[in-house]
Amino acid sequence: MSTTSTRRPHVEELHNAHWRRSSYSGGANDCVEIADLGAYAAVRDSKALDLSPVILSRSALGNLLDHYTDGEACIG
C-alpha cells in the first residue's frame, strides 16, 4: 500500500524541493527545472525563480512529455 499523499503541495514543500535541471540546458541557465513532489511534479523556469512554478499531476506531466516526444507539438 502506498502512503504517497495526493494533496497539492504546500509552498514550503516547493521551497525545500530538490530541483533538477534539464540535461539540455548547456549550463547557460536557459532551462526548465523539475521537482518530484510525490503525486505531483513542479516545473519552473531557471531564469524566473521568483515566479510560481507550474504544478502538474504525474499523469498530466507524463501526457505532456509524451506529446512533445512523439513529435505532435509544433512550437512557433
Automatic annotation (TrEMBL):
InterPro entries: DUF397 (IPR007278). Residues 17-66 form the DUF397 domain. It comes from the Bacteria. This is DUF397 domain-containing protein. It comes from Streptomyces marokkonensis.
